[in-house]
Amino acid sequence: MLNFTTLPPLSLYIHYPWCAQKCPYCDFNSHVEPVSVNAKQRDENYIKALINDLEHELPAIWGRTVQTIFIGGGTPSLIQPELLQQLLSRISARVKLSPMAEITMEANPGTVDQYKFAEFHEAGINRLSIGIQSFDDQLLKKIGRIHNAQQAKLAIERAQSAGFDNINLDLMYALPGQTLKNALDDVQQAIDFGTTHLSHYQLMLEPNTLFASQPPELPDDDLSYDMQLECQQLLADAGFQHYEVSAYAKPGKQCRHNLNYWHFGDYLGIGAGAHGKISDAAQQSITRRWKEKHPQSYMDSNNLEKKSKNSTISTPSSMMGGQQQLSRHDIGFEFMLNSSRLIDGFDSQLFFTHTGLPIIQIEQGLTKAVELGLIERQREHIKPTQRGLQYLNELQELFL
User: Under CATH, domain 10-262 is a member of which superfamily?
Assistant: First the structure.
């Protein structure tokens, strides 16, 4: 039995599963459809399914306020602005949305113009995450991106002109053929645009991707580590705070949605393949939820679920995905899986308030981590050491 005295903050994640092209390194739930598909009709049907999905989830969050929304993908910037506005309007009519909610949408260069950026802003999006990856044309070709450096720069400028003042840029390092100078040049160009947040992460060869089956030649570990350290220093000198393993922000501009994940907060997940985590004070439980992964199966199951409310049709719950109540051990592990990524760590009280468990639940792992120099513990504060961040997987495995 857990002991929740209060519930953690609540976020909403919305997954949009389509892309113009599948990148060879991408292991996200993204799909490319034939050009013959009527994209507007498809998106209209998908939005109906999203709202049906949300309505199905509402009983689990009655009375709670949604603090952040994140629309990820896929490439959500492919959506027509008027459809996005409909989606957000329907969501705000069904959930209690904070008037100060952070609402983020992912966008890729080449899929938006200044008109669309302005319309997205008017629809209620107040934070953009733009997938730049690199400002080097040759490197972009090597990782299969469909935009070039000029399009990347134009996307940032157009977003700023449209009124966005809270913009994240995604950059990758340790790309095929990348030099230390290339990596530093990419970061410097991102800094020069005056954006407020940067996600800077290493290219990894993930299973079930084209790069996993046909791996490119990547920089060795020593060069990759040099890129990481020197880019971190460049960002620090420019006033960016390193607050999570791969996230850097100007003061006050941390991504609130992602911080809620890393603090083990609650979130609804709607959309094909979306995941969620919901705490229940009445049941004193934490439940993981997930949705059908394939977009068409997801839409079919949600349409059938909607029809069954007014008919004798019975919709198996498995068609909607699935759910699992977490054990005490799983809760401790998942908390540390997330919070160990935070550069400044966390107060032990956060563990209790967001898990309903005493800190003793993970005491064995904490003790071992301190002995190995992976965690620093001062009074009630726990944070990873530099060694712990460098060997993050080993640190997290101590709590399995």
Answer: Aldolase class I (3.20.20.70)
